[in-house]
């Protein structure tokens, strides 16, 4: 795939890689030797936005970078390496035309899951960053991220069962976005990984860009 996979849009939103818009999470509940948050990371001009759950699931509590450390996170990262979006060290890769973030960016002590109130508290930060990145293709990973993205950025959620096996790699038109749900890697079986790679290759081979009507700045 090579350069075809990493052709960027020409927007120059910012050249910062980690937390490019300077978001400040509203609480610090991280454990010892952990980062406050795994902030959004990558190419802020990206056409592809990969969205995970929280650092305890998809990694980043110690690196501060989404999709690192954990088996789930590294499995996702490996797909984007195969396609040429990610290069360099696994704990701090260089991303081109791809951005990674979580619906709940803040770290929590090991064994703790975000409460519904904590997800709600961080939703406005996630939404502001998603609209600032303004990617063309949203790739939510796992049930929580998929439910949120389908509910907030498409009109399809009420028509779809949240069956990740069935939704995996489906192309769903949203409000200015195309959404491609991704099954949690811990649940991948058979051909799931190959289907994701093939779907992304097919999207890259055609004109996936859409006219967008969402905001392109935070605030």
From TrEMBL:
Record's protein name: Uracil-DNA glycosylase
Annotated stretches, region: Disordered: 1-29
Pfam short name (any one): UDG
GO molecular function: 4 iron, 4 sulfur cluster binding; deaminated base DNA N-glycosylase activity; metal ion binding
Gene3D superfamilies recorded: Uracil-DNA glycosylase-like domain
Protein origin, superkingdom: Archaea
Biased composition (Polar residues): 11-20
Keyword terms: 4Fe-4S, DNA damage, DNA repair, Hydrolase, Iron, Iron-sulfur, Metal-binding
GO biological process: DNA repair
Domain spans labelled Uracil-DNA glycosylase-like: 39-165
Organism whose genome encodes this protein: Natrarchaeobius chitinivorans
